[in-house]
Amino acid sequence: MSTSIIEEVAKLTRLEKIELARFLFEEIANEEAEDDFELSDEQKADLDQAWAEIENGTAELFTGEEISKELKEKYGITVSIP
User: Fold this and answer.
1) Could you tell me if 80 and 8 are in contact, meaning their C-beta atoms sit under 8 angstroms apart?
2) CA–CA separation, 47 and 59 (whole Å)
3) C-alpha span between 77 and 2 (Å, rounded)
4) Are 39 and 29 in contact (CB under 8 A)?
5) Which residue from 10, 17, 50, 53 could staple onto 59, CB 3.0 to 4.6 Å apart?
6) Which residues, including other chains, have CB under 8 Å from residue 3's CB and lie 6 or more apart?
């Protein structure tokens, strides 16, 4: 992956990043995988529910910094999430 793609993604708003993540996930899910990866109906329902919460403003969203801090505190994992 080129650095320019990552730099462009970093410029997106939080909602644009969420929309991009959903798009990429759907693209991956729609590709024919060698292991015949497919979401269960329950997984699809969970994703639909999460997306509905994002769209109606009731989802609890976290910054990359907040996630990085929690991973460090709970599990001792050091990551940098923009």
Assistant:
1) no
2) 12
3) 26
4) yes
5) 53
6) none
